[in-house]
Amino acid sequence: MALVRILACLLAALALNCAAAPFGVRLGTEKIVLDTPPGFSDTGDLASPRLQDLAASLTPASNRILLFALTDADYRRFTQGDRLEWSRYMIAVTPKGLENVRVGVEQFATLVSDALRGLGKPVQTTDVIRFLEKEPEGKAHLLAELKREPTLVSVLQATRLPPVPGETFWQSSRPQYLFFTTTIFLARGRALQISVYLVTENRPDLDWLTSTTERWREELVRLNR
Q1: What are the residues whose beta carbons fall under 8 Å from the beta carbon of 71, sequence distance 6 or more?
Q2: Inter-residue contact 99 to 107 (CB < 8 Å)
Q3: What phi, psi does 13 have (nearest 5°)?
Q4: Is CATH 3.40.1000 the right assignment for the domain spanning 2-223?
Q5: Could you report the per-residue pLDDT of 99-137, keeping only the tens digit for each?
């Protein structure tokens, strides 16, 4: 059993190293280069139906999933059959209807309007956890508009998570809250949407969430110049 465990760790480390390299996806005539921020690994090579289903639950069926990433630690736990911590993860998608389209400013504005419709005004509160405690489970609230430019929009949202019935990758006996960013921007004329997720039981590290989002977007823009 010790040998099997060692081999599993070596295979996990090898898979982790392979997953860390940038890779390209074809969107019409354009090849878009994708990568994950340091500390995260794309799960595409795992070809896991369970992870694919989880990724699909994060975005509408009208979007094509380009990347779904876990922390390196959770990636390693998954390959070893251990329970995931599942506190930080991220996804990159593109609208299926625009894969072959070079998106202009007006079309981008329409895309943003459709994607972020109904968010309302940012919540005014000094204690977001206390606010979410009193709100319905699963209802997302806009906390802040982080950026708004002609070809870039980024927002911060939060919700109180409902209990998850049956077996899950993780478990917690305490209430949990999900904080996440949604960022839509253009890369080589193609529309990309990235989201970074943070699950917590108490005070969230919003500085980490927003800075990771911005650094990831900047790196994707740099890779696709």
Answers
A1: 39, 40, 41, 85, 87, 88, 89
A2: no
A3: -65, -40
A4: yes
A5: 999 999 999 999 999 999 989 999 999 999 999 999 999
- The answer to whether the Cα torsion of 51, 53, 54, 55 is positive or negative is positive
Residue with tokens 């405690």: 133
CA nearest neighbour of 51 among 173, 220, 164, 169? 169
Tell me which residue of 202, 193, 218 sits closest to 68, measured CA to CA.
193
Report how far apart, in Å, the C-alpha atoms of 94 and of each of 107, 115, 139, 205 are.
14, 11, 24, 27
Which are the contacts of 136, defined by CB distance < 8 A and separation ≥ 6?
Answer: 160
Question: What pLDDT, in 10s, does the model give residues 138-149?
Answer: 999 999 999 999
Encode 141-154 in three state secondary structure: EEEEEEEEECCEEE
- Domain spans of the chain? 2-223
CA geometry: angle 73, 94, 54, nearest 5 deg: 40
pTM: 0.87
